[in-house]
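Researcher: I'd like a candidate sequence for this fold, 347 residues long. If you have to choose between options at a position, lean toward the conservative one.
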């Protein structure tokens, strides 16, 4: 059973789900995620037996099958972490801006992180994972501030339409800057372009461990911002009337999203559309309460990136298609559908 009420945004229906429906969907999403993890460990250029999977999970690499699974384990873990980070960051960004089109890719945050990393590699010779992460976080933060500042100019402040346009223009400009930096540098262009597509292939725990603190801190900050995001959904004036510090709430939630985006982009490249698609799907399942929406977005984002990685391995065997390409194929039509349906209104 669902209850439909009128949201603060005119003409937009808000569906609230009862707790038992949310718990049911939690079980479904968790079960699907477990199946996707099993598929990620099983499916690849070489098929493996269950005995090899169990042995590899125990640390054994005695045969080719076990060695293949051992390589897929960190790849699967990275897909789960990156997907959860991007899904959660997308839900937070949509809540902070009240923009149904908000997404780390569309708002230029991922591209800002990418440009910062590329400039760091080309001009400053950074090469450690930790340096990549700090540089990506700084670039993501600068891009987020710039897009929000540009989108806030003029009458009406930061409307969804202006933020979407500012983000799209900023992403295009930053992409051009990346090309300008990379093209003269033949020594780094191949690796940079491969990283720019976005993917989780070749991951190892040496890459995952340094980024974990950033993702954990970002996730905790975002999850603790759930009540504040619920207040912001009522409108700034009403939220302030309820005692919410609107500017502080926005800044705190945005900080968590920037940490997630910067960390995910540093280790996997700029994977687009995950943060756009996932929150909208989760709202259909559990409603608009951010206390449920945020963790669901993390779980669903983890599942989407893991599924995209599995699909990328299957459709072009023995070669692979990067995760970023698969998510773009899914996300681009979804983006168009949202624009047509929502007409870029506020959430």
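Model: Candidate sequence:
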């Amino acid at each position: 059973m669902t209850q439909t009420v009128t949201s603060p945004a005119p003409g937009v229906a808000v569906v609230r789900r009862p707790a038992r429906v949310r718990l049911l969907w939690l079980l479904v999403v968790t079960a699907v995620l477990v199946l996707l993890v099993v598929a990620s460990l099983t499916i690849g250029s070489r098929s493996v037996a269950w005995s090899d999977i169990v042995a590899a999970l125990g640390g054994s690499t005695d045969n080719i099958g076990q060695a293949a699974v051992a390589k897929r384990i960190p790849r699967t873990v990275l897909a789960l972490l990156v997907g959860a980070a991007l899904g959660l960051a997308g839900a937070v960004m949509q809540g902070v801006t009240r923009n149904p089109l908000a997404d780390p890719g569309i708002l230029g945050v991922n591209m800002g992180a990418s440009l910062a990393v590329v400039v760091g590699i080309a001009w400053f010779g950074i090469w450690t994972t930790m340096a990549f992460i700090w540089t990506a976080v700084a670039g993501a933060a600068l891009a987020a501030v710039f897009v929000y500042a540009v989108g806030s100019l003029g009458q009406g402040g930061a409307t969804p339409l202006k933020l979407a346009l500012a983000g799209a223009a900023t992403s295009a400009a930053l992409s051009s800057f990346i090309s300008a930096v990379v093209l003269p540098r033949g020594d780094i262009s191949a690796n940079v372009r491969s990283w720019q597509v976005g993917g989780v292939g070749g991951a190892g725990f040496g890459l995952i461990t340094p980024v974990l603190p950033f993702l954990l801190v970002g996730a905790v900050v975002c999850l603790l911002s759930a009540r504040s995001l619920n207040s912001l959904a009522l409108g700034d004036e009403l939220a302030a009337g309820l005692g919410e510090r609107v500017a502080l709430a926005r800044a705190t939630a945005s900080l968590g999203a920037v940490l997630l985006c910067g960390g995910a982009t540093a280790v996997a490249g700029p994977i687009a559309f995950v943060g756009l698609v996932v929150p909208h799907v989760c709202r259909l399942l559990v409603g608009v309460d951010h206390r449920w929406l945020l963790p669901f977005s993390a779980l669903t984002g983890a599942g989407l990136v893991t599924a995209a990685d599995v699909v990328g391995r299957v459709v072009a065997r023995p070669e692979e298609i990067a995760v970023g390409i698969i998510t773009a194929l899914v996300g681009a039509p979804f983006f168009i559908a949202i624009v047509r349906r929502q007409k870029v209104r506020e959430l």
